[in-house]
Amino acid sequence: MSFHILAEAKKIAKITLAGELDSLSAREFQREIEKVAAEGPDELVLFVENLTFISSAGLRVLIFAKQKIGTNLAIYIVQPQENIVDTLEKTGLQHSVNIVDKYM
Amino acid sequence: MENKTFPATLDSLDDLRDLVREKALLAHLDKKKTYNLMLALDEIATNIILYGYEQAGKEGVLDVITDLSDRQLTIVVEDDAAPFDPLQRDLPDEDDFSKPLEERPIGGMGIFLTINGVDEFRYEYTHNRNRNIFIMNVPATEA
Q: Histidine kinase/HSP90-like ATPase domain location, by residue (chain B) (predicted)?
């Protein structure tokens, strides 16, 4: 029997968000998502330790990412502050993203 | 009572959130309530700026009136855009929120967060102005 091996590297897009994500800054975030969408990543990792505010405009960009890149995209939200987790939970978004303390 | 005027542009959101933070501090609201009030104001102001003014090709202002009593912190946002009652909008419900992201309705989230974040939210249209009213109960201070 011959040996076969198939290796495939996962494509991971990493973005760090800090400060306040409102409808003004969400435009910038959306442009960034459009850029990474072109690469067709498998995973979108958002480092948000220093993100202190997110409005629905920011949440809509997350939904946009999923719609643009595809349903198989896994979104990781790394180290969100309590108020942000709260908003993700209130809007049911926590079911569609992975909230983690650390991205391995 | 205090009145502050902001240009109806997205750049004002930052200053608006600062104003809310400042008033919430005076009212001794806790961190969570402060955040929720800030979010509520941000959401409604965004709607007014984007849909009331920008999309309508109008320029204008937001007048923000704050009033702090022993019991309540009241913030009123007034604008001259076309009448729009956020409470008349169909809001997403639990069902929508449990759908996968790609099937979710994209609108209504901001108003949902607004109504859920404050102790009382009211809307009125008087003297040709929209008035969005946000009320937070102030924690009782120890005597």
A: 6-132
